[in-house]
């Protein structure tokens, strides 16, 4: 497992900032995005990361007020057999 953590708190992520961090998300073992104003498009990206990152074991998305579509997108990633998440918040 990777020992790397990505933690972003209380930041309304712009599309440019999201595009900047997205490629590196595939290398983290823990991703915490607290109160980041996640959009449905960002949730689709997170779903892809869940399917592509075998070292990701913890995902935390508190205080993001995900809409139904965004939550469904994350759920699709979690249900993928390649997803190794052990802890979800």
UniProtKB/TrEMBL annotation:
InterPro entries: LRR_dom_sf, LRR_RI_cap, NLRP_innate_immun_reg. SUPFAM superfamilies: RNI-like (SSF52047). It comes from the Eukaryota. Coiled coil: none annotated. Keywords: Acetylation, Cytoplasm, Leucine-rich repeat, Nucleus, Phosphoprotein, Repeat. GO terms for cellular component: cytoplasm; nucleus. It is found in: Cytoplasm; Nucleus. This is Uncharacterized protein. It comes from Monodelphis domestica.
């Amino acid at each position: 497992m990777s020992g790397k953590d990505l933690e972003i708190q209380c930041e309304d992520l712009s599309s440019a900032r999201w595009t900047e961090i997205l490629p590196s998300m595939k290398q983290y073992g823990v991703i915490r995005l607290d109160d980041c104003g996640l959009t449905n498009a960002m949730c689709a990206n997170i779903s892809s990361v869940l399917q592509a990152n075998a070292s990701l074991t913890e995902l935390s998305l508190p205080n993001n007020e995900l809409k139904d579509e965004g939550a469904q997108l994350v759920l699709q990633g979690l249900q993928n057999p390649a997803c190794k998440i052990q802890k979800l918040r």
